[in-house]
Predict the structure of DNA oxidative demethylase AlkB.
Amino acid sequence: MIQPDLDLFGPAPQQLAAHTVLLPGFAVAQTEPLLDALRPVLRAAPWRHMLTPGGRSMAVALSNCGALGWVSDERGYRYSALDPQSGAPWPALPPVLLALASAAAAQAGFEGFVPDACLINHYLPGTGLSLHQDRDEQDFSQPIVSISLGLPAVFLFGGLQRSDRPQRIALNHGDILVWGGEDRLRFHGVMPVKPGVHPRLGERRINLTLRKAG
Ligand code: SIN
Ligand code: FE2
């Protein structure tokens, strides 16, 4: 007899806050199609270290795909339709990524999420991301969908004030975290990634955050 509580589809979603849901392993089955789709994206728009408004080089390397891409330089943070490095539009959002993000958002309670931007972050061991809010998007009614690949990380999920003590959330290869609604402007960051070698991606963590930016 099949036990009614036997979980055939992996770990259950975890509600971390009113409008924040961790979907453990949600992307695992799509990892290879995702990586295949990212290869041409990163050929067209290679990893680069952008400057902060203060003129420092960011520790994470990044790229973008979608109609809009997040960029940073001495003039500030913003979304741009063009890759400043090539002057060309960013590569299109791969359909597999769009479908996965919409499915994850729906699973987390945000039906009809259609992102137009995907920020792709690359972390080497020792690299983290300091606490910040995602507030460069036009429409805060739409959630952020974050897909983690490669080495594990500790995600810091704070409150609406920078001084609020953050929760620590383990993000593993294939996990998707969705935050929106009243949690949309929570401060968040990533602890420096611990040294390690991921069996598929080696010494790196890749994070994809999908947004409705325009
Ligand atoms: C971000 O906040 O843009 C990235 C989050 C992450 O790497 O998990
Ligand atoms: Fe962020």
Q: What stands out?
A: The mean pLDDT is 95. Residues 119, 121, 129, 146, 155, 171, 188, 190, 207, 209 surround succinic acid (ligand 1) (CB under 6 Å). Residues 31-44 form the longest helix (14 residues).
